[in-house]
């Protein structure tokens, strides 16, 4: 039997994990702008250390407040982000859709847009933004051989030691793809997350993607 016919087989007792960060960076635009356009903000989903997630993520859908024009925004290519202007804080629903070899699955998360600092000492600054980010980990249990072969050496993906005797074809280039957030213009505001600390927090509760019905 040719190897190509076996790529859809599941690899038991293996978990692929993908560290992700989702959040917002909001800048106050100063006193000269209108009250309804007081802030410019960007919401995004990035790799745990800013890698391009398109090896796993097919598209991201952001659902904004209904007061925005076209509140449901679809981003089909990296970087998975969008920017807007406004004055109010609200909850943004984020849906991550994964490639078909990951099982046609998606993950829904929620992020609260924060425009104003929690502790205000003096006037608000136009130079220092308000940054709110959440670290999480998407887990793919028992992945298909095709998915595992494609992502096994990608920097955005954590693959454990493979079962003895499992042979996979050579993976694609491990160079970071276009859309990586390593050189993002807002990258110096991104938070750094300690992997050891976060792994301890995630040991009790890890996000598992759910199948689309």
Describe this structure in words.
The model is unreliable at about 1-5 and about 170-175 (pLDDT under 50). The chain is elongated. The chain has a five-stranded mixed beta sheet with strand order 5-2-1-8-9, with no helix packed on it. A five-stranded antiparallel beta sheet has the order 4-3-6-7-10, with no helix packed on it. The protein has one domain: Immunoglobulin-like. A hairpin with an 8-residue loop joins strand 3 (about 55-65) and strand 4. The chain has helices spanning about 145-150, 195-205; strands spanning about 15-30, 40-45, 55-65, 70-75, 80-85, 90-100, 105-110, 130-140, 205-210, 210. The protein is built from two helices and ten strands, in the order ββββββββααββ. By secondary structure, the protein is mainly beta.
Strand content: 25-35%
> What count of structural domains?
1
* CATH C-level category: Mainly Beta
Tell me the number of helical segments per DSSP (H or I, 4 or more residues long): 2
Series of secondary-structure elements, N-terminal to C-terminal: EEEEEEEEHHEE
**Low-confidence spans:** 1-5, 172-176
Strand order within the widest beta sheet:
5-2-1-8-9
The overall pLDDT average reads 81
Shape: elongated
Structural class: mainly beta
Q: Per CATH, what is the topology?
A: Immunoglobulin-like
- The proportion of residues forming helix, as a percent range, comes to under 10%
The CATH architecture is: Sandwich
Largest pleated sheet: 5 strands, mixed
Distance between the termini: 32 Å
Query: What's the β-strand tally?
Result: 10
Find the CATH superfamily. YEATS domain
Spatial extent as radius of gyration: 19 Å
